[in-house]
Amino acid sequence: MSTKRTGTPLVEMRDISIAFGGIHAVDGVSLDLYPGEVVGLLGHNGAGKSTLIKCLSGAYQADSGEFWVDGKKATIESPIDSRDLNIETIYQTLALADNLDAASNLFLGRELTTPLGFLDDARMEAETRKIMARLNPNFKKFKEPVSALSGGQRQSVAIARAVYFNARILIMDEPTAALGVHETEMVADLIKELKSQGLGIFLISHDTREMMDLCDRVAVMKNGKLIGNERVEDVTEDDILSMIIMGKNPKKAA
Ligand SMILES: Nc1ncnc2c1ncn2[C@@H]1O[C@H](COP(=O)(O)OP(=O)(O)OP(=O)(O)O)[C@@H](O)[C@H]1O
Ligand SMILES: [Mg+2]
């Protein structure tokens, strides 16, 4: 669970702000992420968690602030910019095409073709089986449309897609919110697997317990501001709750 925060961070967000009308959805937030690290974002509804990671994923353009990826200043003005930096986002409402099978979803928009330019279904299925064998060996439903999959299985298809396309930074916005206990455990196992492979993960969840189990660090936001950014071994669940509720970091109290 402990992280070596040495070397160059995968990502550094520096002083990111974005406002909608008069609302400072994200207000001067700085946060970094190292390889093999899971950083959890916690906070009440409307705290600014999704907005912050949408700036990183290029869905929104930050009004000010800087992104640094692998020690280099990066321009993120669109989802394509973000993806080009090997940042992949998995939203709770997964963008999967229900009527297509796992392989078609994995390669959606980035299909493999034969030398003659035809869709190479056999190779896409073989690649999908290969990556699933690594990520979720119990996955067997390769021939069925993803509408026939459970929530956890759908998550694993979305995660496989990100990993296949060399994601190094994975953003997961409430990946387990709609899942049952067993499915949630499956996604937790996937997160641990990706972490062991050196990916950096930003994870958003409202489940403080789950976050303390899965994350190396937790960052708490309130009203757009970063209240705390602490290694899990340095805080108690109560510390985190007081940051979420009171907007005060007991670790910083004089
Ligand atoms: N596109 C938008 N237009 C206007 N306001 C927005 C937009 N997106 C977010 N906001 C506002 O920004 C603030 C932060 O919202 P955000 O979705 O980031 O919160 P959150 O921490 O992810 O909350 P939740 O836990 O409910 O998902 C809220 O006040 C929200 O209403
Ligand atoms: Mg949100």
Written description of the protein model:
- It is a single chain.
- By secondary structure, the protein is α/β, with parallel strands linked by helices.
- It has two domains: 11-86 and 168-253, Rossmann fold; 99-166, no CATH class.
- The chain contains eight helices and ten strands.
- The chain has helices at residues 49-57, 79-84, 102-106, 121-135, 151-164, 181-196, 208-214, 237-246, and strands at residues 11-20, 23-33, 38-42, 64-69, 72-74, 87-91, 169-173, 200-204, 217-222, 225-231.
- The chain has a six-stranded mixed β-sheet with strand order 6-7-8-3-9-10, with helices on both faces. It has a four-stranded antiparallel β-sheet with strand order 2-1-4-5, with helices on one face.
- A hairpin with a 2-residue loop joins strand 4 and strand 5.
- The protein is globular.
- It starts with 10 loop residues before the first strand and ends in an 8-residue tail after the last helix.
- 43% of the residues are buried.
- The model has no long low-confidence stretch (mean pLDDT 91).
- The site of adenosine-5'-triphosphate has 11 residues, from strand 2 and helix 1.
- Its main location: membrane.
- It is a peripheral membrane protein.
- GO terms for molecular function: ATP binding; ATP hydrolysis activity.
- It is found in: Cell membrane.
- Keywords: ATP-binding, Cell membrane, Membrane, Nucleotide-binding, Repeat, Sugar transport, Translocase, Transport.
